[in-house]
Design a protein that fits this description.
Elements: H1 5-21, H2 70-80, E1 93-102, E2 122-130, E3 145-153, E4 156-163, H3 176-183, H4 199-206, H5 212-218, E5 233-234, E6 239-242, E7 248-257, H6 266-275, H7 279-289, E8 295-303, E9 330-339, H8 344-349, E10 362-364, H9 368-385, H10 459-467, H11 470-484, H12 490-503, H13 505-515
Antiparallel strand pairs: 1-2, 1-9, 2-3, 3-4, 5-7, 6-7, 6-10, 7-8, 8-9
Family: Belongs to the catalase family.
Region (Disordered): 33-55
InterPro entries: Catalase, Catalase_AS, Catalase_clade1/3, Catalase_clade2, Catalase_core, Catalase_haem_BS, Catalase_immune_responsive, Catalase_sf
């Protein structure tokens, strides 16, 4: 049987990636190639034997260190560069490996291959994170939590990058830098480092009424989850699924933890932040280590695109939920996390997610936040990790990769032949037709800068508050009062309370009373 060099390269890449993703498989890593023998004998990065790693090379016993001490220069230079830029958002995170298994074929809705065979276990990597704080912040602070899943499918990687809350603060990606700037520490004094209790945040929020619904979520106890194992996940954005006949349908993703949803109240979350700032990270690691594997069920809501304009809200608005009584949850499959990372930096810190990482059968909607994220995430990873970030072990697809992209920082593959362009009569990769009918998204309209038509900012926020039990309502009010009490400008507090009044008068009155504001 003849195997081409290109096919051999794909096989080697697949095997090396499997060695990293799947436990118990022992295959040489790329760094072990070129005939290098791996041993426990210490060497420099170039293989030069080291017989003393305690003392620098100096002039005499007490003299100056010599620049020619290449062992020291290499060691300290590498150390100086060990930290890469941390994520602007979602900097503090934890990760785990596992698998996803679909319950039954979803071919009526999508032709995505990993959603068809109930016997197939698709490898996954999941990263949980906080949004606002830096890498050194506490796990239990009040914040949104990231819930990002990378599916290693036979058609390439699919990244489902979401949060633990089904809605978001804004509906247009153009406002995202402003929102994060307002959320982060104030630029004049760099405080607070991981809290929303300051003038800038509430000034932005009070001037952005569309955030009111999100406020009723993140300032409830949902803002302080007790465990990543007991936390819901949501795609937040609206995606499009396409079946083999080319028929599209809108879809929303929901992850439901098998252990149920459990949260801390503000007092317990604050106490644990001081006692064990890595509480959620440690909880996830310890559970997997002792075999208590976290499990989540994936559900979707679907909507015929023809129904889009018949709703009282815009289905592509990320500040809105789809009512479950009208668009019921459909079970899709389960995800089990059964393996901890072996090296946090390589497998978690260097993990790169992007909503633009799709597979055939899943497409973008015109959701304005999703449209912006498709560029922003990949741009961030190229800044943090370099042009070839997709070749790092955790990011590398199990599927074969073949295109004409070459070179760039940290390129390690050795490409054969002279062809690095298309079309070519000298060999090289060729485009492949997708299975089933082609999907052609509907595009029509004039260039414009407008907000969407249906922008009711308060109805769902009020519905959310009234759906809470009495204890949950009291916690929401207490948390809002606590955060707003750190705002030093009364006019900002008043604007925030006025927005709450349009959602629910009782909520507004309770917060105003707690702040000592006259209504």
């Amino acid at each position: 049987m003849y195997i081409s060099r290109r096919d051999l390269k794909h096989i080697l890449v697949l095997l090396m990636t499997l060695a990293i993703l799947l436990p118990g498989l022992s295959i040489a890593k790329p760094s072990e190639g070129n005939g290098t023998t791996i041993s426990k004998n210490m060497t420099t990065s170039q293989g030069y034997p080291i017989n003393n790693d305690n003392n620098s090379l100096t002039v005499g016993n007490r003299g100056q260190t010599l620049l020619q001490d290449f062992q020291f220069v290499e060691k300290i230079s590498h150390f100086d560069r060990e930290r890469i830029p941390e994520r602007v958002v979602h900097a503090k995170g934890a990760g785990a490996f596992g698998y996803f298994q679909v319950y039954e074929p979803m071919d009526n809705y999508t032709k995505a291959k990993f959603l068809q065979d109930s016997n197939n276990k698709t490898p996954v990597f999941v990263r949980f994170s906080t949004v606002a704080g830096s890498k050194g912040s506490a796990d239990t602070v009040r914040d949104v939590r990231g819930f990002a899943v990378k599916f290693y499918t036979e058609d390439g990687n699919y990244d489902l990058v979401g949060n633990d809350i089904p809605v978001f603060f804004i509906r247009d990606a153009l406002k995202f830098p402003d929102f994060i700037h307002a959320l982060k520490a104030e630029p004049n004094n760099n405080t607070p480092s991981s809290s929303s209790g300051h003038n800038n945040f509430w000034d932005f929020i009070s001037l952005t009424p569309e955030s009111t619904h999100m406020i009723t979520w993140v300032f409830s106890d949902r803002g302080t989850p007790a465990s990543y194992r007991m936390m819901e996940g949501f795609g937040v954005n609206t995606y499009v699924w396409v079946n083999k006949d080319g028929k599209p349908i809108y879809v929303k993703y929901h992850w439901k933890p098998k252990l149920g949803v459990h949260n801390f109240d503000r007092q317990n979350a604050t106490k644990i932040a001081g006692e064990d700032p890595d509480y959620l990270t440690r909880d996830l690691w310890n559970a997997i280590q002792k075999g208590d594997y976290p499990e989540y069920e994936l559900y979707v809501q679907t909507m015929n695109i023809s129904e889009e304009m018949n709703q009282t809200f815009d289905p592509l608005d990320d500040t809105k939920i789809w009512p479950e009584d009208k668009f019921p949850l459909i079970p899709v499959g389960k995800m089990v996390l059964n393996r901890n990372p072996e090296n946090f930096f390589t497998q978690v810190e260097e993990a790169a997610f992007c909503p633009a990482n799709l597979v055939p059968g899943i497409e973008f909607s015109a959701d304005k936040m999703l449209q912006g994220r498709t560029f922003s995430y990949a741009d961030t990873q190229r800044y943090r990790l370099g042009a070839n970030f997709n070749e790092l072990p955790t990011n590398r697809p199990l599927a074969g990769v073949d295109n004409n992209q070459r070179d760039g920082a940290m390129q390690y593959q050795v490409f054969n032949g002279s062809v690095n362009y298309y079309p070519s009569s000298q060999g090289g990769s060729e485009p492949v037709s997708q299975e089933g009918e082609a999907y052609e998204p509907y595009l029509e309209g004039n260039m414009t800068r407008e907000q969407i038509y249906k922008t009711d900012d308060f109805t769902q926020a009020g519905d959310r508050y009234r759906s809470l039990n009495q204890t949950e309502k009291e916690h929401l009010v207490s948390n809002l009062v606590f955060d707003l009490s750190h705002v030093t400008k009364p006019e900002i507090q008043k604007r925030a309370v006025d927005n709450l009044q349009q959602a629910d008068k009782n909520l507004s009155a309770a917060v105003a009373q707690g702040l000592g504001l006259k209504k």
